Amino acid sequence: MLIDFANVFLFAALAIGFVALILAVGKLIRPDNPNPIKKSVYECGEIPIGPGFSQFNMRFYLVAFVFVIFDVEIAFMYPVTVIFRDLMSSGWGLLGFIEIAIFILILMVGFVYAWSQGGLDWVRTLSSEK
Amino acid sequence: MDATLISLGLNPMPAKIISMVIICLIVLIAFVTIGGVLTVVERRISGFMQARLGPNRVGPQGSLQWLADGIKLILKEDLIPDGADRTLFKIAPYFCLIGVFGTMVVFPWGSGVMVADLNVGLFYFISITALVVFGVLMAGWSSNNKWSLLGGMRAAAQIVSYEIPVGMGLLVPILFSGTLSMGGIMAVQGWAPWEWIVFQSPFTVMSFCIFFIGSLAEANRTPFDLPEAESELVSGYCTEYTGFRYAVFFLSEWANLFVLGGLTTAVFLGGGNLPDFLADYTFLSVLVYMAKVSVIIFVVIWLRWTLPRFRIDQLMNLSWKYLLPGAFVAFLGQAIYMLITQHIPAVQTTVAVLMFLVFVFILIRFFIRVRVNMREQQIPVNSPASDVPLT
Asked: How many CB pairs below 8 A link A and B?
């Protein structure tokens, strides 16, 4: 059983090897004569102003934050979910359900808070930002 | 396979490793072929839906177009723009490919046909697909291009937002089957539609819808293809990519379509299960499985030409304000339903058969409506524009 997990690394290694091999073969046969125009950044034909690493909307950061919290919570829910059927057949089903429900309730408090604070709104107008 | 190698005089351990490498190579070739063929299939179906031809020159019915495209892309000059972060720019495609190809370890090709039936299968599945976000974000950030940066950020926000509904949607089948392994989940389902997980209760139907919408968004399919919105962002995070690196992004995207169909089939639609008297024919099981996957893929391509693209605030609202609470309701509902009907299996069977009949009724109703609409419009399907009356 444990050796099955070696497949994961094998697959990753082979995927890397496959792309690297084709890129290496390609290097031998593809043309390579760059010039400044070719190597300039594509901006619909205009000469780009400033670097591409520009500012971006703060929202993306906020979404990532909410995501991390929820994703960890969901990872915690998987083990309970897997054994729920076993719990039921051994007569502990109701207790298991109550525990999951309490966990989800706590999760929901955070969710409702994030929602009420506007953390889930993409477009925020000035009037909603008090 | 390792039994054959041992009989040839090899020790068990090297035999195991050699057979693993051979299986992996076979899967890699199948993966690349399926990803390639799907690009042609999508273009042909799109052509059919828009009353045009699509690629039909290379090979019979254009079926070798993907090979021609691949060779052309290998021969293209590999440009890295000035001021780009060269290391990140080069390794980004690898992350995308590993994220999709890694799922093949637990991918079921039919009943009992899989590389390794890991006992944490589904969990591994959703964690390895998270690697795609890294690839997309790296590609967007390292290109030194404003379009790429915006596209990468959008893609990351979108994939990250929809990962939660997908994870929650998968909890319901796990609740029903009590296992994380792909083989185990397929084994609790039967061949008949009312034995599939999707028709078990109203809550499983709900979780199926949530999961399916979420995985459409995760695979960057229309109506959620904001990261590559051609009319706004040129080509999103892969604007600066050329040649084979660009091809890797697209290979992983189309292979992702296949993975989406495969996961949906295995978890919700009964996988490759056959009636008992046919259970010995593995080949038939693979065939049934692939037929179901093809139907899902066709529906996904159909959706592309049916629905317009979402706006980014609508996209975020859908995920956080509708799908996520819905997934919580489906999860708790299924748990309560299982507790109540625990000792009365007759109720479960009745509900499952009823759900299936409702589905069949909706399907028939849908086709009747389509026929009526087509007759009322008086427009023959796939007719040239000049034949359409202008009123």
From this structure: 202
